[in-house]
């Protein structure tokens, strides 16, 4: 069985991108279930799949994150990777689906889990907001805060890969990807066609799909009057080539194959490089010096 890719909510388990996309494991309501049941559920996933990669957003309730770490500690398992990327909820859902695509390939669990950090760099995630008064994930200037209180104001915000915030106007654009992408649009309570009618054509997206914004999006963006969007690489062949083109190493602690400088399963980093031992100078009291002096005399 392929490595299990899990998310913390059913709305983060997007429909398959292609016929090879494996289903997501949904760890919903971890903080509301008895601890022994949560441990048993995760143990079942490990028994079935061998390894588990859990993706969760920075807007997840603190109790859920604490429960994830508690379950991992109780199981004393280095086969569970907890990954919390710097992505809004819709972007996280897209990344989870990309890993679900790659899970069908011949990638080792460590390489697959490490691929999450690599693929994050190729995701452009943002939102159209009716207000930025409560937005704390992206720097917001005083002028933008003041404009948030003006009726009808809308703001285009890019959270990743580089933060950007602009007030929507006739010529408003955000910096987009320099490679071909598809776009997923998650609709909240804001009514606007700016994302699909202006941004998507400007970014030259090759395909566009719509869904509902995840429940965690309102907490992440500070408002439920939003339209979230994410540009991403959809093709499995491209994702596979990106991952396999990166040099692989072996974790010195747990022995699993990884890419990058951090093992996502045991959290070990490479040991510091050992400096060559300096050559010791001969001293008058050393045995070698004594022999040399005796022979020379």
Automatic annotation (TrEMBL):
UniProt biased composition (Basic residues): 288-297
Renumbered residue ranges of the record's region Disordered: 272-297
Name this polypeptide is given: Uncharacterized protein
Organism of derivation: Streptomyces bobili
